[in-house]
Amino acid sequence: MKTTRDAATRTALFHRIQMLDANAVAKWGKMDVKQMLHHCILWEEMALGRIKTKRSFMGRIFGRFVLRNILKDDTRLTRNTPTSPEIKIDVVPSTDFSSQKQHWIAVIEENAVNTDTGFTHPFFGKLTRDQVCQMSYKHTDHHLRQFNG
User: Within 13 Å and on the Cβ side, how many CA atoms surround 120?
Assistant: First the structure.
């Protein structure tokens, strides 16, 4: 299973992030490329424990089952998957696109080498650090594919 803990996998993701264009158009979904970039940074920040979220009721019921299904193999995430309200993006702060890409790369790198035990995802519940890094890869890949990255 691909994971951001693997240096070669991270390098490939970083190359794809660097190739993102500020004018890229989404193949699906409601976010534009700048919103997606900010959303992905917030996801990594959430996984580092810097953004606190509440467990969803549906997540408490179905979260562990869905997580096992997602992490059983390298199957890609499906399109238009719901997101946590804490990292849903309506307005993007006015920042330089290039510096935002560098910030995304930095938080992925930080997450990959983090020795913390994990965090509690708002839908899936408690994730181990290995699960965090597997989900980080899947989430990043999902959004890069959304914008041809």
Answer: 9
